[in-house]
Amino acid sequence: MKHKLSSTLFVLALFSLLLSACAPMPAADGGAATSAPTEAPAEEATSAETSADTGEAMSDIGTEAHPIKVFFVPSVDAQVIVSGGEIMANALNEATGLHFEVSVPTSYAATIEEMCASPTDSIGFIPGLGYVLANQLCGVDVSFKAIRFGWSVYWAQVLVPRDSDVTSLADLNGKKWAYPDAGSTSGYLAILPLLADNGVEPGETLEAGGHTGAVRAVYNGEADFSSSFFSPPLKPEGEEPWQPGDEPDIPADLVDSCAPNEDGSRLMCGDWRVLDARAGLREEAPDVIQKVRILTISDAIPNDTLSFSPEFPADLRAQIEEALVAFAETDAWNESIGNQDFYGWTGIDKASDAEYDVVRQMIEISGMSLEDLGQ
Fold first, then answer.
1. Is the CATH number of domain 7-150+303-373 3.50.50.60?
2. Helix and strand tally (H, E) in the chain?
3. Predicted structure pTM score
């Protein structure tokens, strides 16, 4: 029988975590949860392991009666996640014979709670902040990190109206800030030290419910500035790729040309492709680049993770890891988590816990509180 963490215990545990000293960075990312179980028939997965703490027999994990829980943070539209997640779940089912149930908890914090409440049978596609908190709270373990167009890192961006007279972060003092979720690494955590270092105390705040929502808030005039993820623009073949230190936004002489391509699948500015959070608003607001500009970006953040719950059976984990690597090489990947309207992962790579020490340091520097996490 599973022991689900009560809200009180979760809050107390997380409070203790955030007060504790973080590991140093080594030298040199409202509503009911949506669920969609897979239905394809398969042989029952077997494991002789048993959880000593819960007394729960784990031999039925991955069966149709006990599907593996797959949690996705709600950073984009939940229906996009569920439909793409089903494609992934079905592919993994075909490769391993295991059954999966896709779910989108109501917030980043809820995703952490769900994984810790399901220590033997859950997988989470969670950003760096969520991974670090879940790891220290209950031992969630990272397996893979996202690759996006060759990058294993990403950045946070600050957006303002293109016609705004804001020219520096200091100009944002007292202005209304929209962010995706207080559990978002790029949309919230990485922004806190940027604002603090520039003496910025926002006025009103708006939790926009996702990165696209944060872009929308600036586009619609609901906020003076917003924060969301930044991925470098994809430049035309033959041109030198974007590098850290380059201007993050589209060149001024291309802005008027920016629009979705013919089938609406991409946001293009001439031969440049927009890959930051603004691209998620392209169909609703084709002129989003003409209306919203990038003020600045943060230091690099390690990409989102695919992580396993702390007591996940090792044999099943190995099967799933092998199947994910194979799935990442298929066309179906681009209809699932590789879809730009989903998480836009163009591939995966093995990850280590030490890579996320930089996020632990962000938590320490920011002095993040439970209220910041949205509890």
1. no
2. 10, 16
3. 0.68
